[in-house]
Every structure is written in structure tokens, then in C-alpha cells.
Design a protein that fits this description.
The protein is of the alpha+beta class and 288 residues long. It is built from 10 helices and 9 strands. The model has no long low-confidence stretch (mean pLDDT 89).
């Protein structure tokens, strides 16, 4: 899998001055567009679209300093329809406009070319199972919140605090299948997974029960799920679980992620220092 990802990276590098279709990158990597975007963001730490933008402007920066083409020629070469648009994008990455960079020969920022390799440290054991699950519903309270890559999400924390205990108790009572109890569910994420884009967040349970009128519901079709378990210090155990799934498990197993909600069940120790986590990711087998 990583070899194919690196072939896709080679394709990006050789087509920085052309339109790069995610469908073609996914074809090279022998996976779906959805999984390719998710795998890339997990491995690289930035969305695919942002990496391509930074690489283009890095290469464009070298051409600006070289002085062999006009600024407008460079702008058009790297996909900008106007000099003004190119200047704005250039300034956002390099901190100054292309004209000033050329005049002064200023030092510019660089996005290094990426390649991937798998490093398994062996410091922790990832427990997983694969489950075929019939259609179910997520029932609870829903909010539209911004995506935060690291640390606590303030919008989610405020949302959970806004739910009164009586409502939380009624929601918990509807749980009738695994993952049992209150869960955190993320759905309808932007394909770029860029920080600040929005998602639907549910504080609810997995159930087949009828939906009370004052609660929100998400119907989830039947499908296959990979279920990962992790235990360790809170919040580190949660912060690294999702990352390890995409950087260690997927490259080593014949599955890819598919569209659908992510479900996280968390149980804290009495002192809040330790956590047991169970992460459900919708998956499908890859072609042999």
C-alpha cells in the first residue's frame, strides 16, 4: 500500500504544472478517492489539497527567484487565472508577494516533497476486530461543529455541557446494541478534512429503538466495520488511536475506509487519568 502511495506522490510531483485529479491518484494507489484522501491526511498531517497547493507554490517560488519567466507566466503555469490571485496565494505561503521576492531575492518558505514509509515501534498493541453490522440508528443530540485536529474541541465540549442530565439519561436508556452506552459520532465531514471545516457531531447511542420527537437521529446502512480498542493515559490514548489506525493498520491490512460515520466509545477511570477507547471505522475489503 505504501509503495502505491509513493507512486501517487511521484505523479503529483510530475504534474504540479497541470490539473491533478484525485481520481487518478486513487487509481495509482489502487484505492477509492475517499480512502486516499483520508490516508493521505493521516500520514501527512495536512489535507491533500493543501499539500498540492504548498508544493506548487514552493516550485513557483523557485521560478520567481530564477527570473526566467514573467510573474504572469508563472501564475498561469501553476493554475492561477490572474496575477492578483497568484500574488495572494504566494504571500500566504511565503510571507511576501512574488514581485518583492524577485526584487529582493528574499528567502522563501519551502514545502518539502513527501514520501511515506511504515515505522512500527512496537510500543503498544492494537487490538481490533471486523464486524458486519445490520442497519442501525444513532439517536441523541446533534450539533454542527468545526473540525479540530489536535486537543480538545471547544465547540463539542460546550455542546455536551449544554445537554441536561435528564436528556442524557433518556438517551442512554435507548442503547440496545454495541457499541453500548453513550458514544461520540462524527459524520458528514468535508472531503478535504481541513481544520476548521465543519462536521455533524452526535452525542448519542446506537439503537434500533423508535426516535423520540425531541432527539436527532442518523440512519446508518448495513455494512462492515473495523473496531479498534485501546487503553492508556487520557487524553493521549484517544489522540493517537485514530492516527495509528490509518498510519499502521490500514497499510498492513486488506481494507480501505468507506463513507460513513466514525463512532468513538470512551470510558474514563474514576480519577479521569486513564481511558478505555473503542473506535468504529466503516471499511470494505480491497481488491486482491
Amino acid at each position: 500500500m505504501l509503495e502505491r502511495l509513493n507512486q501517487a506522490m511521484d505523479h503529483i510531483e510530475s504534474h504540479l504544472d497541470q490539473r491533478i485529479a484525485v481520481s487518478e491518484l486513487a487509481r495509482i494507489a489502487v484505492t477509492s478517492e475517499y480512502h486516499f484522501r483520508r490516508m493521505f491526511s493521516a500520514l501527512a498531517g495536512i489535507p491533500l489539497s493543501e499539500y498540492i497547493r504548498r508544493r506548487r507554490l514552493t516550485v513557483a517560488g523557485a521560478e520567481v527567484l530564477a527570473g526566467e519567466r514573467t510573474l504572469l507566466e508563472i501564475a498561469v503555469r501553476y493554475g492561477y487565472t490572474s496575477g492578483e490571485g497568484f500574488a495572494r496565494a504566494f504571500r500566504a505561503v511565503h510571507g511576501l508577494g512574488p514581485g518583492e521576492a524577485r526584487r529582493t531575492g528574499a528567502a522563501l518558505h519551502s514545502q518539502p516533497r513527501m514520501s511515506f514509509r511504515l515505522i512500527v515501534e512496537g510500543s503498544s498493541s492494537m487490538r481490533y476486530r471486523v464486524v458486519d453490522k445490520e442497519q442501525f440508528r444513532v439517536v441523541g443530540k446533534k450539533a454542527r461543529v468545526p473540525l479540530v485536529h489536535e486537543g480538545m474541541n471547544p465547540a463539542i465540549a460546550d455542546f455536551i455541557r449544554s445537554i441536561d442530565q435528564e436528556t442524557t439519561g433518556r438517551i442512554a436508556a435507548l442503547s440496545d446494541q454495541e457499541p453500548e452506552g453513550i458514544v461520540s459520532v462524527s459524520d458528514d465531514l468535508d472531503p478535504s478534512r481541513a481544520e476548521g471545516t465543519e462536521l455533524d457531531y452526535y452525542h448519542g447511542v446506537v439503537t434500533r429503538s423508535a426516535v423520540p420527537e425531541d432527539l436527532d437521529a442518523l440512519t446508518v446502512p448495513a455494512g462492515t466495520w473495523a473496531v479498534f480498542e485501546s487503553s492508556g493515559p487520557f487524553p493521549q490514548a484517544l489522540q493517537y488511536l485514530w492516527r495509528d489506525v490509518f498510519t499502521q493498520w490500514f497499510p498492513s491490512n486488506p481494507y480501505q475506509s468507506r463513507p460513513g460515520p466514525e463512532i468513538l466509545r470512551t470510558r474514563l477511570s474514576a480519577d479521569g487519568a486513564q481511558a478505555d477507547a473503542e473506535l468504529w471505522i466503516p471499511v470494505e475489503r480491497t481488491a486482491v
